Known about the structure:
The protein has helices at residues 5-10, 58-74; strands spanning 18-21, 25-29, 37-43, 82-85, 101-105. It is α+β, with helices and mostly antiparallel strands. The chain is globular. Adenosine monophosphate binds next to loops.
Amino acid sequence: MTDCIFCKIAGGRIPAEVVWQDEHAMAFRDIQPLAPVHVLFIPKRHLETFAELADGGGAVLLSLARGIKEVVVSEGLTRTGYRILSNNGPDAGQEVLHAHIHLLGGRDLGPMLTETKG
Ligand code: AMP
């Protein structure tokens, strides 16, 4: 998609600090990090939400999992741990409408959500 910022990063049309990539997916540092390690994993082809990977996205899913595994090691998170999450749609506050997974680590990340349950 021509006006999608993550498609532009995937196509090399705007810069990003890329930390990993293969044929199907790539990972780069978040421009506004919320933790010492904050990396975004994206499919190179445009998909709006993570659930769309259910339609023929098997190779992409495997790439994303392999990329996460490699970056966890290269960023030194194996022992201390990390969190992965994907915001999808308005209730989750998804800002960029290109499917992505956040990898966060390098400090105590606290509870999963800050607000009360339910
Ligand atoms: P989300 O709210 O899950 O859609 O998260 C989108 C993320 O993309 C935010 O954490 C932004 O800081 C990040 N972001 C937006 N533009 C860029 C960019 N050009 N390079 C790196 N990260 C970006």
